[in-house]
Amino acid sequence: MQHELQVVADPDAVAGTAAAFVARLARTCVQSHGRFTFAVSGGHTPWAMFARLAHEHVPWEHVAVFQVDERVAPDGDPDRNLTHLRESLGAAPAEVIAMPVNDTDLDAAAAAYGRSLPGRFDLVHLGLGPDGHTASLVPRDPVLEVSDRLVALTAPYMGHQRMTLTYPALARAQQVLWLITGADKREPLSRLVAGDRSIPAGRVEAAASLVLADAAAGQVPARAGAQPPA
């Protein structure tokens, strides 16, 4: 997959640039087909992006927000991505379709969430870990080889089992937006933009990919033809 790489000064600039990009795309999609389907990963940078989105013109009533991944933890737990997502959205009237990680039968819950997904996502936000993971697709986890389900469960990772979109689900994205900050991401970012499929993030396929990185992470050469977002 070809990546467009844009490097900005710092995490605050990443959040602001991302918010403007998301708002423009949301308006375009709602005007084009009446709805904006957006899948969101966890992390400090996307929460900062949502805080900036509060100051952008976004047609929230026509926005459906899905989760890319979630920890199996109680509702309201500070480790839950959903907790921070709801806080970041504030009063914005977007529809949030939460991963059902508190169901008794998690395999059935994952299958049900898969059935709730749209045939395509207008936008999927992803992050990048120092180990090259994205979503909850982490190195050496059997979930990396799941190809017959859109949503699956991981082995425990950093204290929690997780529910995650699989590669086939991520491939429904018309646009992927990577938000990558910090010097510890420099090496995996270099591998990502080089198309290194030995890291989990390098196996993501989508129609288009924009990588927004801060200067600490982004001192890597952009691929030929990379352009800043319109």
TrEMBL record:
Pathway: Carbohydrate degradation; pentose phosphate pathway; D-ribulose 5-phosphate from D-glucose 6-phosphate (oxidative stage): step 2/3
A molecular function GO annotation: 6-phosphogluconolactonase activity
Reactions mediated catalytically: 6-phospho-D-glucono-1,5-lactone + H2O = 6-phospho-D-gluconate + H(+)
InterPro entries for this protein: 6-phosphogluconolactonase_DevB (IPR005900), 6PGL (IPR039104), Glc/Gal-6P_isomerase (IPR006148), NagB/RpiA_transferase-like (IPR037171)
Keyword Phosphoprotein found: no
Keyword Hydrolase annotated: yes
Domain of life assignment: Bacteria
Classification via Pfam families: Glucosamine_iso
Keyword vocabulary terms for this entry: Hydrolase
The Glucosamine/galactosamine-6-phosphate isomerase domain, residue ranges: 10-206
Signal peptide interval: none
This enzyme's EC code(s): 3.1.1.31
Annotated family: Belongs to the glucosamine/galactosamine-6-phosphate isomerase family. 6-phosphogluconolactonase subfamily.
Protein name (database record): 6-phosphogluconolactonase
Lineage of the species this protein comes from: Bacteria, Bacillati, Actinomycetota, Actinomycetes, Kitasatosporales
